């Protein structure tokens, strides 16, 4: 198992990226696992699965610092003693799924930013978290999307620049779904030769821009 520091927190290019995209380029023939858990219980069950499964495969984990201090990433004791690792997580805050018109698909801590923005705007948007990028849980994604009958707008949101992160890997997987009535778009930082800006002020403005693009009217 390989734990890699990864997360855009305004700390500069040397403290933001684990080069997720390079590990995803290595993924083929069910050879490794790439995960980005967002809660304490998910992290626990991921470790437990790795130890208990009969077939051992390398596990690469993205580990941002910020969730260590976030209330949103905490889990009640009951979630540790029951359940298992979920490769993809539906939005637990949505009560009336028929009202949802847009689904934001993302991985990692940017999900919490999207949820906070959704609450702020009171938008009819669901935020779905991909906890395992490879093998990609395409069946789980289809199952979740089927529960949102009026959601035809799909957004892949990532905090990494467009030429980094998981977007180009995910795009190849969800491409067939573009012909199934879904309008797919993606939101990312602009392409860059550097993983991240060295300015906290610019970082904060980039996050504002990401949220604006994610929730803007189509």
TrEMBL record:
<feature type="domain" description="2-oxoglutarate dehydrogenase E1 component/KDG C-terminal">
    <location>
        <begin position="74"/>
        <end position="215"/>
    </location>
</feature>
<dbReference type="InterPro" id="IPR031717">
    <property type="entry name" value="ODO-1/KGD_C"/>
</dbReference>
<dbReference type="InterPro" id="IPR042179">
    <property type="entry name" value="KGD_C_sf"/>
</dbReference>
<dbReference type="GO" id="GO:0005829">
    <property type="term" value="C:cytosol"/>
</dbReference>
<dbReference type="GO" id="GO:0045252">
    <property type="term" value="C:oxoglutarate dehydrogenase complex"/>
</dbReference>
<dbReference type="InterPro" id="IPR029061">
    <property type="entry name" value="THDP-binding"/>
</dbReference>
<dbReference type="InterPro" id="IPR011603">
    <property type="entry name" value="2oxoglutarate_DH_E1"/>
</dbReference>
<keyword id="KW-0560">Oxidoreductase</keyword>
<dbReference type="GO" id="GO:0004591">
    <property type="term" value="F:oxoglutarate dehydrogenase (succinyl-transferring) activity"/>
</dbReference>
<dbReference type="Pfam" id="PF16870">
    <property type="entry name" value="OxoGdeHyase_C"/>
</dbReference>
<dbReference type="Pfam" id="PF02779">
    <property type="entry name" value="Transket_pyr"/>
</dbReference>
<keyword id="KW-0786">Thiamine pyrophosphate</keyword>
<feature type="domain" description="Transketolase-like pyrimidine-binding">
    <location>
        <begin position="2"/>
        <end position="69"/>
    </location>
</feature>
<protein>
    <submittedName>
        <fullName>Unannotated protein</fullName>
    </submittedName>
</protein>
<dbReference type="InterPro" id="IPR005475">
    <property type="entry name" value="Transketolase-like_Pyr-bd"/>
</dbReference>
<dbReference type="GO" id="GO:0006099">
    <property type="term" value="P:tricarboxylic acid cycle"/>
</dbReference>
<dbReference type="GO" id="GO:0030976">
    <property type="term" value="F:thiamine pyrophosphate binding"/>
</dbReference>
